[in-house]
Specification:
Elements (H helix, E strand, L loop, with lengths): L2 H11 L5 E9 L8 H13 L6 E6 L2 E9 L22
Antiparallel strand pairs: 1-3, 2-3
């Protein structure tokens, strides 16, 4: 398993009650970022205190990981929604 997969697996296995977390790895480092789980735990605690932000950048060494926290108890806010558009083509007679 490469480093990116290890990070995604570690995040997926974390207990993050009330949130689904996406992680975009902007820059890779050499070693697994040991402080990542503590950082996510701090963000979860901040949500309990009322913080409204949903996007964060985790930095450790050369690592840059862009984390987005999606609440699981409501519809995704418009600003964070992934949208699909279907391109209609005219039917040929």
């Amino acid at each position: 398993m490469d480093k990116k997969e290890q990070i995604w697996t570690a995040i997926a296995r974390m207990h993050t009650p009330g949130f689904f977390i996406t992680a975009l790895i902007g820059q890779e480092g050499e070693e697994f970022p040991a402080a990542l789980q503590a950082y996510i735990g701090e963000r979860l605690a901040a949500f309990r205190r009322g913080v409204k932000a949903r996007k964060f950048v985790f930095r450790q060494g050369d690592w840059r990981i862009y984390l987005t926290f999606f609440p699981t108890d409501r519809v995704v806010e418009e600003g964070y929604a992934l949208k699909n558009s279907v391109m209609k083509t005219p039917r040929k007679p």
